[in-house]
UniProtKB/TrEMBL annotation:
The keyword Transport applies. The keyword Transmembrane helix does not apply. Pfam families: PTS_EIIA_2 (PF00359). GO terms for cellular component: plasma membrane. This is Mannitol-specific phosphotransferase enzyme IIA component. It comes from the Bacteria. Residues 2-142 form the PTS EIIA type-2 domain.
Length: 143
C-alpha cells in the first residue's frame, strides 16, 4: 500500500472548524487502513499541545507520541478546503495533510512535505487542483 493514493484525497471539502477538519483528516487514514480509530483522538490531543498550522495555508495534523501503537502503516491523507478553515489566531488552512508514520518514518515524510509546501506556488496549485491526479503529482516526492 502506498503512502498516498487517490482514495486518501478529498477535494473541495467545506469544513466548519478545526476539530471537524482534524477528525476528517484522521478518518481518511482510518478508512483506508493506515491507523486504528483511536489515532483520531491522539490527533486532537496533539493539536491541543501546539497548533499543527504550518503557515502558507497548510496544516499537518498528526498524532502524539502515544499514538504510535495506533499506526498500522505509514500513510497520508489530503483534504483540499478552498473556502478555508480557521485554525485559530486568524490562521486559515486550505490544505490539510494528515500524517501517520510507522516508527520514525513520520519525520522523513514531514520533511518531504515541508519542502513541497515551502513553495507558495505549489500550495496555490494544491488549493486550485481540480483532480486528485494533480494533487498526487504535486506530492509525488512524498510518496
Amino acid at each position: 500500500m502506498s503512502i498516498l493514493n487517490e482514495a486518501n484525497i478529498v477535494l473541495n471539502k467545506n469544513l466548519e472548524n478545526k476539530t471537524e477538519a482534524i477528525k476528517a483528516t484522521g478518518q481518511i487514514l482510518v478508512d483506508n487502513g493506515y491507523v486504528k480509530q483511536e489515532y483520531i483522538e491522539q490527533m486532537l490531543k496533539r493539536e491541543e499541545l501546539s497548533s499543527t498550522y504550518m503557515g502558507n495555508f497548510i496544516a499537518i495534523p498528526h498524532g502524539t507520541e502515544e499514538a504510535k501503537e495506533a499506526v498500522i502503516e505509514s500513510g497520508l491523507s489530503v483534504i483540499q478546503a478552498p473556502e478555508g478553515v480557521d485554525f485559530g489566531g486568524g490562521n486559515i488552512v486550505k490544505i490539510l495533510i494528515g500524517i501517520a508514520g510507522k516508527g520514525n518514518e513520520h519525520l522523513d515524510i514531514l520533511s518531504k512535505i515541508a519542502i513541497v509546501c515551502s513553495e507558495e506556488e505549489n500550495v496555490e496549485k494544491l488549493v486550485q487542483a481540480k483532480s486528485k491526479e494533480e494533487i498526487l503529482q504535486l506530492l509525488s516526492e512524498v510518496n
